[in-house]
Records
---
Amino acid sequence: MTDKVLVIGAGGQIGTELLEKLNELHGSSNVIAADLNNSPAFANNAFEKLDVLDKEGLFNVVKKHQINQIYLLAALLSATAEKNPLFAWKLNMDGLFNVLDLAKEKIIDKVYWPSSIAVFGPTTPKENTPQYTVMEPSTVYGISKQAGERWCEYYFNKYNVDVRSIRYPGLIGWKSAPGGGTTDYAVHIFHEALSKGSYECFLSEHTHLPMMYMPDAIKATVDIMHAPADQIKIRSSYNLAGISFDPAEIAQEIKKHIPGFTISYNIDFRQQIADSWPKSIDDSESQQHWGWRSAYDLSAMTGDMLLNLRKIK
Ligand code: NAD
Ligand code: SER
């Protein structure tokens, strides 16, 4: 059977790039983009204006296009969620239930839902954070992701729902803008390095965080979704590691390409969120179970980001 894929939140930082990859894999006529608003990124796809909280609307879109797989990307990210915690909880949880229930009722047969390094908290070991460890998230975003992970595993165990998930680190790409997270600085810094030659960072210089270049994240996403079901032994969410660095280190790397580049610091509420997260991640289970390997280190990512941003600016 040909897969018919629905991407909800397709116009966001990840969706924009994931859509391109899914078009390659499935053919663009088999990939439907859904979001609150239309976007030029959907030029090759059918578009459905959809609020994931509208359960009936979601059901109608799934039926109309005979969808069998959903990638659920609609969510409020860490920084935006702190400004509206109750709505963040509602969107991040009810959106997930609306999709998981379609799989429980066997209307669709596979779900992708991303979790985050935000499931970890201040009491988690910070270096090489293992898959299984203390998890006491202190942000509403992290609480919603941790609860989401528990529900994914519950739906797998109780209802045999084929749900797959990754705990993404902070994602960095040149094709799309970040959507309100704590790691957004690592995208903004490239744009401002090119446009102004300087960047004022909202995190302090030694805030070390797990990050990943978008091509690696997209590869991991399609790899986990296309792996045989028996290789996916963790049905909550998998740790995934790419690159770990702090603002001073990425600034140093950018200086190799733009010698006059300067960074200054003006920290805000996002510092507290970042301080509660790990510095680096151990992703042994992803490597062992479904063959994950990242391709980009800090130097390769920086070179590729600047090369591509220079072409489009
Ligand atoms: P984003 O904010 O860039 O995009 C989210 C998209 O969802 C937007 O296009 C938005 O319009 C849409 N959306 C919001 N509310 C909606 C609703 N009610 N119905 C339908 N669409 C709605 O987010 P992203 O960075 O692409 O993240 C996607 C997923 O990946 C989220 O679950 C996020 O938590 C997770 N994640 C992202 C990162 C990262 O660094 N980008 C890291 C870890 C996890
Ligand atoms: N990049 C995301 C955020 O900062 C991590 O989930 O919210």
---
Amino acid sequence: MQQPDLDISVVIPLLNEEESLPELTQWISRVMQMHGYSYEIILVDDGSTDHSWRVIQDLSAVEPAIKAIRFNRNYGKSAALNVGFKETRGEVVITMDADLQDSPDEIPELYRMIKEQEYDLVSGWKKKRFDPLSKTIPTKLFNGVTRRISRIPLHDFNCGLKAYDQRVVKSIDVYGEMHRYIPVIAKWNGFKNIGEKVVQHRERQYGTTKFGLERFVYGFLDLLSITFVSRFKKRPMHFFGTMGTLSFLIGFFITIWLIGDKVFNSFYLHQRTRDVVAQPLFFLALVALVIGVQLFLAGFLAEMISLTGSRKNEYLIRDQIGLLPTHV
Ligand code: UDP
Ligand code: MG
């Protein structure tokens, strides 16, 4: 792992943003130099099909702070962030979108909040948004649900502009659509000092949005797995074992009762008078026993899998600039 030896790393995931890149990187450099920060700009090209990589090559030739990674195909924003995070050398890590909707002028204040106010993470809040209604309404809903489930009082979980203490980004692994829940993951990892800063939001200048409505479906499923995984990843048996044992016990006691009924009252399952109660109970017991054993087994398997660890964070990288060739 890299030791932090710079003030700030800016990580920018991008997909087909060739028009915005020159203006964006120049603006960032200007802000950094004005405040005298040592910095790096890590551009992660998430499988662009336009000339983004060409533009990045040209830009990195004149600005040595630019480093870049190019994926072999589109893996998604989370993957891009994840790989970018691994390379960061800054004490403070800032993420922003490549489409110029986030302003680099926010960087100094975000940096100050992490360094001086000792926040682990500061999330941008696009209080005044410049997006169509079809996007702002579902976003409100999404934020409400996430706020409630995670108990983190943020207004805008999905804001691309965020600042982190270096320790936070090195501790998290994001994939799928999970970039929306980085504050939640950070909190689960023990980084509870989460702040918020109102940031300027601008209209998209070039290109189009890369996310459709499916983002909300995937996003919701990811929230479920995050809540579940973070709670039980290290001890799946606690969840499955409890449920399994409970179900098994229910089945077991019903069976005992049915046997007792037979022995002491000499009722048999086929006797019509008791059928109404005994027969459903018999099936209930059967189902409960089977489900109980199943859950127990699932817990057992999950326990074994969590021991071997998962390998889902491997992305094929096609090219990179200014970084040690660890991936190629
Ligand atoms: N992005 C990416 N990979 C993807 C989709 C998006 O790297 O698969 C980048 C995109 O280029 C931009 C950022 O993620 O820099 C946010 O995307 P976008 O602006 O389209 O989202 P919106 O602002 O509409 O939520
Ligand atoms: Mg955008």
---
Amino acid sequence: MPYRDFSLLGATAKLSGLAQRAYDLTRPTALSPARLQSMKASACGFDLLYATERLDEEALAALQQLADEAKLVEQFMVMKKGGVLNRIEGYASEERQVLHTACRDIFSEQPHMPEATAKAKKELEKLRIFLDDLASGKVVNRNKESFTTLVQVGIGGSDLGPRALSLALQAYALPGREARFIANVDPDDTAAVLAGLDLSRSLFVVVSKSGTTLETLTNEELVRAALARAGLEPKEHLLAVTGEGGPMDDASRYLASFYMFDYIGGRYSVTSMVGAVTLGFILGFEALVELLRGAWEMDVTGEKTDIRSNLPLLMAMIGIWNRNFLGYPTCAILPYSQALSRFPAHLQQCDMESNGKSVTRQGKAVTWKTGPIIWGEPGTNGQHAFYQLIHQGTEIIPVEFIGFRRNQRGLDIKVSQTSSQQKLVANMLAQSLALAQGKDDVNPVRRFAGNRPNLVLVAERLTPYQMGALLALYENRIAFQGFCWNINSFDQEGVQLGKVLATKLLHILADANTQIPPASEAKSVEEEMLRQAGML
Ligand code: G6Q
């Protein structure tokens, strides 16, 4: 499919014009009941309320035109059907398919990529058997005790998503099961996690698609050494998730191994074995399947061409309106759910590593803005911290609120006639209105300019199904935006340079540790940098 540059799409000129007279949310009748009712889209248990965006019917129609002209849904279908979308024409690049959706196409009678879905099913079946063996007592420690803790050792895509989702669904953990995470090569990270563990009842799943990641391999050695010091046989406590045939694919070193595949990008790998092993351990297999079902149903929603019924596409287009036409450089994701406290961190990677690009899929410099800075923290905590800038600062920050009508754990109390959950959701909706409408005041310090765009995503309860749907909603939104900007959302060349330089610095430190004299008198900038930092 020929890709068209964002700036050449006819709707962009129209949208630029419309942005000059973007919908004014501060007019007294701007947020009419009719607007609130009509600017609402629903899918997979989520309601998306977007009346508080600076959009009117004309702008929405132009965004639909933009989505159609850029053939966003067609590109999404090409992705699902195994097109080699992870590439830059005419230049060396990863040249890969992008098939994380195949991991959840398991519910479909006719999967888009039967072979990839069959592989995903095979790994899931291996996991089901392993989880059954844990539950039935077939897999136990040397003292015939069950394993209570699973520690995931991985970094980046092999950490953030699984960590965010494990935390989000902790309320549904099987009795006596918990997950922990080790990511940083900072040895204090591993030490702090190990300090709180009964090693004899802990399993460690080392997750690395490449099997070569410095941090993960180093932390694996720290864990192996700790197990050996405790008189345990490391292999009996270690699992692996890695690429088939890769350097970590070695059955002699692990109790069990699961595979992930090169067509699944790290930051899109939560629904592969990268997330499934840990999530399956704490939640059980059935809940894991529910999570996959939620993601699958959101993937199906992503196939609709009408932006008003395609939630990921609608959110993508609203984001593009705010980023490219209203010119806002960041986007805050503010979940009113303590369980989602690490979800913004996952989205920060997923979005910024995907769409933080400045060349097109033809290798040309882009002349339009691409991915915004993504950040966020849970409400209501943030209200007592950084919301001041969102309300009255000189930068306008589009906000995405995420909330639930019911809590997960059922513990609540009524104080002053309202429950905590009602207080939580009321605060979220109040913030949405306050940002949009603003407030005039004779005192300039108490004046709120308003017109601060935001949307609200709300569902009944954060269940495994709902979590899967939320994950896929954002994954697909990110892919749609990348398609629209004509960038490759699936590579991450930007992280390579730092890695290469770190290797150079480590060689200098290794030589110093073994007292090998420097090759020449002239000091390299790397050596001088180490010296100035007091490392040499
Ligand atoms: C994600 C990135 C990156 C990757 C980590 C870990 O999309 O590629 O964050 O996940 O560098 O890689 P490994 O799984 O290969 O250890």
